[in-house]
Write a structure and sequence with these properties.
heterodimer; A: about 260 residues; about 90% helix; B: about 250 residues; alpha/beta; Rossmann fold; 6-stranded mixed beta sheet; 11 helices
Chain lengths: ~260, ~250
């Protein structure tokens, strides 16, 4: 009975959080008209996300591309034509590894930063101060961060895809007798332009989940430094789980029709 | 005029404000006294609409704060300067930009020359050196941060000033400087002020009227002389420590 009661409380709390999050999104969206407030701040945030994350995103994607290529070579040597390596590397990176790995890295890097920044602003009353000055925390703090994420995370995903494919191409040539022509032939054989759009659409949804959850957690921080730590951890864990759930749902909706 | 009617607020099961009635008349300075954790800051945040009451009303200039629309609330807030306990300065901005945010009129905020002059004037009013405007909050002492917080609160030429523990955490010398500053601003700017504090000595120096909040209830309201003459045990208990202090007696 206690287990059922605890489960019931957990479910209710979950619904309550979803309700509060929806309310937060609607309230924040009301600040979208204040373009001159959020535009310059968005540019700063976009630069911070892009310049600060480019190296780590491309590095991890390059390693993912290389490992995918090498494992494909190991598993399929002698059984299927070499050009299939090109197909598998390009498809794996663009459909799955590029967007998902980039999103998980940025959930840690950007999500943690936003939750900690806004959480600290909440506990030191900086957000209250902004409100007390008759200014909208949404247009000063939330909208610039969310829009910067929605622009830069898909852009970083495109670069991560390029990095992963190039790295896989170079790696597979180093260990298998695959020519450039084989790789390109394989990459083009099953290629559909929709795959590229799908990758960017996924990145867009992942960007929304990272930035909105981080801002929401930061805004609802309580109880000092411990609360900031708790918000930061919760933001990263929640957005990482949501990325994996969205990955499954979007694959089902956009690829398996 | 600020009026609180039957104001009630609780967090979970803890009642913080228990049907409080309170008013602040035009031009006066009221000190809201009370031990830590009795709901003084919560009461102050109700006045500016940062917290909504469970029931009861907060009326500022004839308008019920909790029923105001976003734009009306923003307009009301532009007439109220709020000094936060620890300054609540924006870490990522220097003093100039922090104080500039206090200029709530958008046309004036966009006029850089006006902002420069107004900020220099506010910085002078709070007794800070002109070069302070280039500094970031992390480069300032606690007392300087509080004074920048006051400069930001007065930058928009508000009608009301709300101070949340302006002297807490400061040494007696700096606390005296802030008290004198509050007194001078009240006289020079002619604002209506509410000061939340547990510093009895400072409250007696600055305020026209005092109110003692204890366990969510206003125990007594009156002039400093009425407080000194009071036989209410809660008032006596709260004042006792400072009555024994020779500097207070002086």
């Amino acid at each position: 009975m206690n287990v059922l009661a605890a489960l019931g409380r957990w479910v209710l709390e979950g619904f309550s959080q979803v309700g509060r999050l929806s309310f937060f999104v609607i309230e924040s969206a009301r600040g979208i008209g204040e373009v001159r407030i959020w535009w310059p701040r968005m540019m700063v945030e976009a630069w911070n996300i892009g310049a600060g994350s480019l190296f780590i995103v491309m590095l991890i994607s390059a390693f993912a591309g290389a490992v995918t290529a090498l494992q494909t070579g190991y598993q399929f040597t002698g059984s299927i034509p070499y050009y299939v390596v090109g197909t598998l590397v390009v498809s794996s990176i663009i459909l799955e590894l590029g967007p998902v790995l980039t999103a998980l890295i940025l959930a840690g890097r950007i999500g943690a930063r936003y939750a900690a920044e806004l959480g600290t602003m909440r506990v030191t009353e900086q957000i209250d101060a902004l409100e007390s000055l008759g200014r909208s925390p949404a247009s000063h703090l939330v909208i610039p961060r969310v829009l910067a994420g929605l622009i830069m995370i898909p852009a970083l995903t495109v670069l991560a895809n390029l990095s992963g494919v190039l790295s896989g191409w170079i790696s597979v040539k180093a260990v298998l007798p695959v020519t450039d022509a084989d790789f390109i032939y394989g990459a083009q054989y099953y290629w559909r332009p929709w795959d590229a759009y799908y990758s960017i659409i996924k990145a867009f949804f992942f960007a929304g989940s990272i930035t909105i959850i981080a801002c929401y957690m930061g805004f609802n921080t309580q109880q000092g430094a411990e609360g900031v730590g708790r918000s930061t951890t919760t933001a990263v864990v929640t957005s990482s789980v949501l990325i994996l759930v969205l990955d499954t749902v979007l694959t089902r909706l956009l690829l398996n029709q | 005029m600020i009026e609180l009617y039957n104001l009630h607020k609780q967090f979970g099961k803890q009642v913080v404000l228990d049907n409080v009635d309170f008013e602040v008349r035009e031009g006066e300075t009221v000190a809201l006294l009370g031990p830590s954790g009795t709901g003084k800051s919560v009461l102050l945040k109700h006045i500016i609409g940062l917290i909504k009451p469970d029931h009861g009303k907060v009326v500022v200039d004839g308008k019920d704060v909790s029923t105001l629309k976003r734009r009306e609330l923003s307009e009301l807030r532009s007439r109220i300067g709020y000094v936060f306990q620890n300054g609540a300065l924006f870490d990522s901005m220097n003093v100039f930009e922090n104080v500039r945010l206090g200029i709530t009129d958008q046309a004036k905020y966009s006029d850089y020359d006006y902002c420069r002059e107004r900020i220099a004037e506010c910085i002078r009013l709070v007794n800070l050196a002109p070069e302070t405007i280039e500094k970031f909050p992390a480069q300032l002492s606690g007392g300087m941060r509080k004074r920048v917080g006051i400069a930001r609160a007065i930058a928009g030429a508000p009608k009301y000033l709300l101070y949340d523990e302006p002297t807490s955490g400061l040494d007696p010398v700096n606390a005296d400087i802030i008290d004198s500053l509050v007194q001078r601003l009240d006289n020079e700017l002619g604002v209506t002020s509410v000061m939340v504090t547990h510093d009895v000595r400072g409250a007696f120096r600055v305020a026209d009227r005092l109110a003692l909040l204890s366990e969510g209830v206003i125990v007594m309201q009156g002039t400093p002389q009425e407080f000194l003459a009071s036989s209410n045990p809660k008032v006596r208990e709260f004042l006792e420590r400072d009555f024994d202090n020779p500097s207070f007696a002086a």
